[in-house]
Each structure stands twice: as C-alpha cells, then as structure tokens.
C-alpha cells in the first residue's frame, strides 16, 4: 500500500491551508520495526502459519477486521508482520489512547497506529456521592450529595460506578444536567450490583429487579456511592482520518470486539467498524473499499513456543443499499446489518465455542477423528476444529451427542489422571522390549541435549523467573479491571515479551561487564591474550551470551518434547501401569469409532453430499484407500444443501461462499448479538459521539443464546424484526416481511440448483473459484504443500 499518512478532517473549501498530517506512517520505520520485532515473534512462537493470504487485495483500500482479540498487543504485531510478509501491505491499526505511552507508544508511532480515546480511560473520581431517588418510577434520575455536576460533568460524557465483588462497575451516558446535584442518564442502570450501590436496598433479585415495587426511593439514611466522571470524547477527527486513509487506497485494521479477552467465543462487535466502512463509502462511493475478515487462531497463546494460524477470509464489499441507508438517515439499521455481515464473516475464520470445557471436548474429538495417526497440517487442524464446533452447536441437544460428550470428557479425565497426552496412548501397542529400548534411547538424547540447555538455562533463568512472575501479576490486574476476561491470559504473552525485551539486555550487559572486568583484572586467569582489547570483549560478549541463550531455547524445545514422552514409556514398562495404558488404548479405539460413526451419521443429515468434503481419511470405511490426500476434497457450494465438512454450517451463512468481492447475505435472520446490542435510542446522527472501542463491556455470564432468534444455526427471524401485530398496519408490515423472506429463499434455492447442475457438468461433484481454493476456505494447494513438507 502507499505510505500516505492518516490526516484529519480537510480544511474548508475557502481555506488555502493544506490538511495537516495527523498519524504519519514512514515506510522505512514501519519495515525496520517489523523486521526487528520478527526476531522476537520467531523466538516466542514455534510456528505462525498464514492461511489464505492470497485473498488479500494487493491494491486499493482494505479494512481488516481481526478476531478474536486473544493476545493483546501481540495480535497487532503478528497481523502487521503477516500482512507485510505475505501480502506486501502496510496497515494502520487502531489502538487505545491509554496504551500510547512508553515502549508501546513509541512502537505504535513507528507503524502509524491510530490512537483512539475511550471514556473509561479518562474517567476521574468526582466529589460527593450519588444515589437513585426513585429507582422504580424514574430510574434515569441521578441525585448527588455534595456534588457539582454543572462543573464536573459533561452532556455526552459518562458516569462510572466503582468496581466491587470482583465485578467491573457499570457505566452509562449522561443525557442532561439538571443542576449541581441532579442529572439524567440515557438509560437506567442494570444489574444487581449497580442497583445495590445506588439504593442500598436488599430487595433486589439476581436479575437486578426490585421486588418491593410499592417501596419508593433508596434505603432510608443512605448517602450514596462514590463514582467517576468521564468527559465527552469527540471521535470526529479519528473517524475522518480513517476515512481519508481508506479513500487514498490505504489499509486500516481494527479488532472490533473492543478489547482483548481470553474467552472461547467472539464478543459482540462494536459499531465503530461499520461506521468506518460506511462513512468512507458515503464520501467516496467508487473507492473500491473491501472488508477482509481475519481469524487469529492460537494454540496456547500465552505459552512460550506456542503456535498460531492467521487465517484470511474472502474479501467482500459493502452493498450499495447499506450506503444509501447510511446517507438517508437510516444509520442505525445500516450499521446493524453491516455488523451482522462482519460477524458472520469472522465466524468463518475462527473457532468459537460456548466455554472452555466444550473446546477441550471438540479438540479431543478432532484427535479421535484422525485414526490414521498422521500429523495433519496446522490449517487443517484449525478448519476441522471449526467444523466440529459448528456441528456441535447444531446437535448439542441430540442424545447421541450428549452421551458421546460425556464419554470424551471421561477419557480426557483419565489422560489427566495418568498425566499423559492423547497421542502417547499409542505406546501401549508397542512390545515391551521396544518400549524399553525407546525409553533409554530417548533418555540418552535428553542427557546429550542437556549439555546445550543447562548453560543457557542457568544464565537466562532470571529472565524466565521475572517474565513468569510479572506476566501473571499483570494478568491478575487485568482480570480485576475487566468484565469479559476469564483468567486474564490474553495479556500474559505481551508482558512476557515486554519483560524479556527490557530485562534480557540488562542481563547480557551484566554478564559482559563481569567478563570484561575479569579480563581487565587477570586476563580471565591467563586465558585471554594481552593483545585483545577490552572493547572487543564487550563485542564478543554480546555475541556469545545471546548465542548461548538461543541454543538453550532450541535444544530445550526438543528436550521438553522428549521429557514429556518419558512418563508414558515408563508407565508401559511397569506391569501394573502398563495394564492401565492398554485399557486406555482400547477405550480410545472404541471412542474413535464412536466419534467417526457420529460424524458419518449426522453429517449426511446436514449435507447431502457429505462424502465429498472429508478433511480426514475415514479408516473405518470398507475398501478405503490409505492416501490421506485423496480424502481431502474441497467444498462444493455454500448453501444449506451443500456440505462443508463433517460438522459445519453453510458457508452462505458465514459469508465464505460468496465469490471475491461479493457480500454475505443481508437476511435479518442472521442477526447477531452485535447488532442487537446497539441501543434502540441511538441513531448515530453524530458519529463523533460513537465510540470505536468498548465502553460498556458485556457481563462475564453473558449468554450466547437470545430470544431474538437468528442465532447460530437458526433460520428464524429475530423478534425485533417484526412490528407489533396489534393493528392493521402491523399485520401488513409483518406480511410484507414474510413475503420478502420467501422470495429471497426461493432465489437462494434457484442459485443452489444452478450450482449443483454446474457441479454435475464438471464431473467431479465440486465447484471451485478461479483462484484454486474451495469455497470452504481450505486451500488444496496449501494443504498439499504442507503435507509434502512433512
């Protein structure tokens, strides 16, 4: 992309002054910084695999939406690095204003990041206390004791309650200031904690409702709670700067969930991403803006030497219909529909499960569904996880799946009890002499590798200890300040890298200084010739000590894999334990058959030509070939009648079946939690008041289901899509929407029939686009290349 900087709102037509650069990007600084940081990425991650990077447009404006945001600042670094290396594009990412300080602030300026202010970051304690004088009849009226709202509060600003009981305090927008001791908020406070803080009443149920409705006011004698106030933040310049960058053909990236988290599902998306796209096209309809979804998929993201897959979905354009709605005072509906499209496209490149236990079961099922024992390429592992997760979401109430989940969960418990991994269960089929030989062979390798590990481990131990301690302390702090994090693991990797970057040079300087002093004192016991200058010792130290550390990391990585394999081998040698391993192996084989049978049974129920879409060879099929590559077939079509794998949704639902440049469906039955979360009274007439990042994060107990319908795997309309059926006009509106949906479904079926006929003409039962990749998003070329590399 071009290196044009982001600029603020343009000057008036009569002003001769040119627009000033607001967030400039220097190409050489950008490339130099990413090259330097790539060394750290390669050290921390064992593998970062880009998938589908060929889909990224090489020219023109692109808006990258990345999720889930599971690794704080590391996500941004990996995304920028991958785009620069694989797609030759430079991208400006949006970053919270509070993070633009210290090293992170300096680094963000090198890569042209756009700082965005958030109300919660500028909130300050205000004088006095507040309470609800009439929580039942007038819940939006706030009254203060010893306050001065006219001096400290702003209309459009925010009011924050304090955190308590391990929960983040609630927050609301200020609608009107009535006086120094009274103000009105845009919406009532919700939740048990907030009402208790503002009323001190005990008659509050778990849903945050007052049970004694005939009792007015707060608890007698209650003087209120402390609070914070944040000023109104005008985002107009930030939005205009983004518009100008995209109109000039540049790239902008955003993590639309608002903040990092360690959940197993996507959070509701914020309206900022939709405003950025619609606002750009409203000013420049012919700029050719495309949106590219990016899935940030990690395997133990917070652990050292973990793995990651950065998956790029097919780019899509914003339908002109939504741009017209945005320009014609229908911004709320346009933003809601575009958020639905973005959410659906992100679901096609991410693995989303309702909780951690379900994720563990799905990953176990994926391993059991690979009875050949062949190592699958990393992108195929991610795709298989996603398809199994989507299939589980559809059939989770099926008695067969419930029983199978219980069996797989019990199998996982047995693995944890024996402290072994699933792939190590296969040791039980080896003969006793083979096991003994393998055990001592690996033990010998471990001893030899220790010679290269121990020196670096001892020298670098202070850094390991410091990174682990500080990162976990930061995780606890982040967890206490967030309502969406579960364990705060999303900040661990970032702080491990930051601490290492700061502490490692200090440690190397210390070791080099000691060595130079010893050389100066006695030439290191006579081992260093007199002609060697002291400055050369410093240079040698800065080569020697990092080399020792790097060797320890690489040898240690192999050594840890060997060390983990010794325990199951030892259990196989011991007579009593070997029996348990043998039983577990038999149990695994039975479970593998059950999982394969369940997938083979339920798969055709979802997709008629299920057999053409296997990612993994079916070892239990009669007369099957053993060539896994022959079993890997591409997706046929993105429709409810076409398969996408053993357990997956239609790609038309996720948006991935759309050809390049096409948009995901606009059907309101795809309404997501993101668009439903938009406040009903928000028209977005002034985008300067619309925050780009989260200001009121959802509760930790937020449910993935909704009575509004249109959820994952649902073909129903959301209730909010209908008008009230209490009048003739209401019935007419509902009838019109139903007829529109029927026409849309008929058109969809017609297109599906044409695709099936075309696939029969092709003779292989599959259709693919002109780039050589299936509509399921899995590249046959990528798969074959990875398979051959193994």
From TrEMBL:
Biased composition annotated in UniProt, kind: Polar residues: 664-688
GO biological process: phospholipid biosynthetic process
Name listed for the protein in its UniProt record: Phospholipid/glycerol acyltransferase domain-containing protein
Bias (Basic and acidic residues): 743-759
Membrane-spanning ranges: 446-470, 491-511, 531-553
Source species, domain of life: Eukaryota
Keyword Transferase part of the UniProt annotation: no
Pfam families: Acyltransferase (PF01553)
Ranges for region Disordered: 631-723, 743-790
Organism the protein comes from: Parathielavia appendiculata
Record keywords: Membrane, Transmembrane, Transmembrane helix
Annotated Low complexity bias: 638-649, 694-707
MF annotations from Gene Ontology: glycerol-3-phosphate O-acyltransferase activity; glycerone-phosphate O-acyltransferase activity
Domain Phospholipid/glycerol acyltransferase: 63-299
SUPFAM superfamilies recorded: Glycerol-3-phosphate (1)-acyltransferase
């Amino acid at each position: 992309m071009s290196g044009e900087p982001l600029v603020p709102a343009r000057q008036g037509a009569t002003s001769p002054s040119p627009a000033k650069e607001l967030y400039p990007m220097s190409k050489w600084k950008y490339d130099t910084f990413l090259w330097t940081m790539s060394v750290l990425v390669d050290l921390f991650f064992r593998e970062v695999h880009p998938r589908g990077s060929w889909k990224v447009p090489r020219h023109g404006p692109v808006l990258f939406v990345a999720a889930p945001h599971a690794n704080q600042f590391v996500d941004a670094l990996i995304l920028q690095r991958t785009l620069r290396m694989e797609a030759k594009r430079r991208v400006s990412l949006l970053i919270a204003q509070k993070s633009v300080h210290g090293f992170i602030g300096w680094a963000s300026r090198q890569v042209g990041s756009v700082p965005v202010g958030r109300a919660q970051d500028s909130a300050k304690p205000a004088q006095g206390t507040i309470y609800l004088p009439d929580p039942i009849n007038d819940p939006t009226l706030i009254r203060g004791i010893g306050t001065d709202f006219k001096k400290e509060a702003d209309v459009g600003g925010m009011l924050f309650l304090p955190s308590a009981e391990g929960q983040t305090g609630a927050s609301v927008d200020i609608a009107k200031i009535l006086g120094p001791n009274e103000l009105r908020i845009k919406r009532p406070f919700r939740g048990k904690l907030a009402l208790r803080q503002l009323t001190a009443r005990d008659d509050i149920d778990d849903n945050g409702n007052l049970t004694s409705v005939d009792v007015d006011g707060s608890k007698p004698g209650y003087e209120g709670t402390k609070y914070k106030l944040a000023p109104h933040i005008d985002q107009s310049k930030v939005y205009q700067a983004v518009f100008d960058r995209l109109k000039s053909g540049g790239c902008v990236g955003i993590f639309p969930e608002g903040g990092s988290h360690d959940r197993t599902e996507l959070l509701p998306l914020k309206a900022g991403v939709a405003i950025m796209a619609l606002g750009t096209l409203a000013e420049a309809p012919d700029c050719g803006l495309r949106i590219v979804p990016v899935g940030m998929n990690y395997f133990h993201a917070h652990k050292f030497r973990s793995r990651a897959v950065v998956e790029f979905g097919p780019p899509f354009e914003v339908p002109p219909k939504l741009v017209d709605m945005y320009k014609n005072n229908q911004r709320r509906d346009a933003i809601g529909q575009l958020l639905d499209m973005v959410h659906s496209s992100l679901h096609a490149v991410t693995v989303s499960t309702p909780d951690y236990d379900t994720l563990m079961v799905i990953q176990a099922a994926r391993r059991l569904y690979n009875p050949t024992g062949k190592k699958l390429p990393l992108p195929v592992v991610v795709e298989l996880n996603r398809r199994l997760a989507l299939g589980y979401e559809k059939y989770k109430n099926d008695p067969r799946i419930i029983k199978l989940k219980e069996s797989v969960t019990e199998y996982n418990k047995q693995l944890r009890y024996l402290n072994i991994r699933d792939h190590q269960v296969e040791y039980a089929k080896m003969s006793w002499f083979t096991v003994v030989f393998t055990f001592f062979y690996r033990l010998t390798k471990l001893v030899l590798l220790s010679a290269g590990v121990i020196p670096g481990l001892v020298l670098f131990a202070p850094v390991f200890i410091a990174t682990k301690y500080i990162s976990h302390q930061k995780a606890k702090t982040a967890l206490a300040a967030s309502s969406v994090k579960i364990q705060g693991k999303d900040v661990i990797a970032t702080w491990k890298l930051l601490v290492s970057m700061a502490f490692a040079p200090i440690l190397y300087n210390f070791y080099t200084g000691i060595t130079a002093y010893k050389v100066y004192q006695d030439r290191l016991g006579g081992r260093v010739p007199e002609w060697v200058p002291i400055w050369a010792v410093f240079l040698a130290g800065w080569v020697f000590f990092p080399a020792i550390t790097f060797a320890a990391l690489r040898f240690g990585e192999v050594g840890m894999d060997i060390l983990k394999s010794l325990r199951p081998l030892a259990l196989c040698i011991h007579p009593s334990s070997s029996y348990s391993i043998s039983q577990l192996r038999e149990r695994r084989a039975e479970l593998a058959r059950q999982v394969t049978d369940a997938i083979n049974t339920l798969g055709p129920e979802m997709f008629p030509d299920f057999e053409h879409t296997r990612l993994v060879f079916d070892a239990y099929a009669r007369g099957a070939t053993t060539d896994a590559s022959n079993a890997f077939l591409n997706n046929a079509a993105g429709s409810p009648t076409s398969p996408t794998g053993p357990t997956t949704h239609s790609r038309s639902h996720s948006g991935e079946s759309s050809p390049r440049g096409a948009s995901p469906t606009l059907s309101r039955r795809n309404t997501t939690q993101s668009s439903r979360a938009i406040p009903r009274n928000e028209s977005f007439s002034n985008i300067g008041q619309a925050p780009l990042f989260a200001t009121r994060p959802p509760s930790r107990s937020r449910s993935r289901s909704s009575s509004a319908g249109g959820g994952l795997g649902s073909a129903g309309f959301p209730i909010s899509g209908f008008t009230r059926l209490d009048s003739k006009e209401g019935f007419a509106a509902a009838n019109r929407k139903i007829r529109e949906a029927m026409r849309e479904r008929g058109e969809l079926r017609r297109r599906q029939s044409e695709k099936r006929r075309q696939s029969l003409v092709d003779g292989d039962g599959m259709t693919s686009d002109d780039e050589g990749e299936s509509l399921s998003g899995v590249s046959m070329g990528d798969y074959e290349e990875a398979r051959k590399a193994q």
